[in-house]
Design goal:
By secondary structure, this protein is an alpha+beta fold. It contains six helices and nine strands, in the order E-E-E-E-H-E-E-H-E-E-E-H-H-H-H.
């Protein structure tokens, strides 16, 4: 695996040389090309200048910031290097916080951190200390000319760098029309029972990309049919639950869940009833 970035994790006076590696695989992504409808000729995108409509080669393209309407200042690589932040070459840990205190909304993109030569001992020390204290390091790091907020956390034998959103990037639900009334006790008790009956231990391998598989099947059907139109599928309509029917729907859901529950779940329920 090739490192995306090389630098160091820095906290206090400790510096750990590390490489950054992608933690997300996109090999299963089904890619489509845009085609002209009449003859299936692939459609290409061109970089065209607004002034004269002429195509522009990559080597002629520069980065510009529009500070006023149609007024630009151009920045080159040396200008970006002048943004001399400590975080340009380091994962600069500013503080350690409890992982449970961070709203999951803040987390965005995960990357693996692996030690470079000479950093193995300090890497293990940080990994084990974080695991023992259930804390994560809150850091700043510059990737692709942008500074990111990030969390350094232990995952098994690895350290994970998870890019985070800054607080000002997150939306505020205050502008939404949200209900403020309290749920009825009977409905709430039944909903809680339903949640408990559907609860299980998290196992990532249980959850697969069903849409990906179904789309592949449609593609194979289309190939076999020689580009002919396939019959339209019957979409299962999902009706919103009526307030009047809420208790009835919850009751039906509980019965359905009990019937479909695996053997170990049924055994757990029996033992709880006996204990009561």
């Amino acid at each position: 695996m090739r490192a995306i970035w090389k630098g160091a994790i820095s906290f206090g006076l400790v510096n750990i040389p590390v490489g950054l590696y992608s933690a997300v695989r996109k090999a299963n992504e089904i890619r489509f090309k845009l085609l002209r409808k009449s003859d299936h000729s692939p459609v290409r995108y061109k970089r065209v200048a607004e002034a004269d409509g002429k195509e522009v080669a990559w080597e002629e393209i520069v980065k510009g910031y529009e500070y006023e309407k149609n007024e630009f200042v151009v920045l080159d690589e040396k200008d970006f290097e002048r943004v001399n932040l400590k975080t340009t070459q380091t994962v600069d840990i500013r503080e350690f916080v409890n992982l449970d205190d961070i709203d999951p909304m803040f987390f965005d993109q995960p990357y693996f951190l692996a030690p470079e030569k000479g950093g193995e001992k300090a890497y293990v020390l940080l990994r084990e200390a974080l695991a023992r204290t259930n804390k994560v390091g809150i850091a700043k790091v510059v990737l692709k000319t942008r500074e990111h907020l990030a969390a350094v956390k232990p995952v098994g034998k690895a350290l994970l760098l998870e890019l985070m959103h800054f607080a000002e990037e997150l939306g505020d639900p205050a502008g939404l029309s949200l209900p403020t009334f309290e749920a009825g006790k009977k409905e709430l008790d039944m909903a809680q029972t339903l949640i408990e009956s559907m609860s299980d231990k998290w196992k990532a391998e249980k959850h697969t990309d069903e849409y990906h598989q179904a789309l592949l099947e449609v593609i194979q059907e289309k190939i076999a049919a020689g580009e002919k139109k396939l019959p339209a599928s019957k979409k299962a309509s999902v009706k919103p639950t009526n307030v009047v029917d809420l208790v009835s729907v919850l009751q039906q859901s509980l019965e359905q869940t009990r019937k479909a529950a695996p053997a170990h779940k049924k055994a757990e329920r029996k033992s709880k009833r006996k204990a009561a």
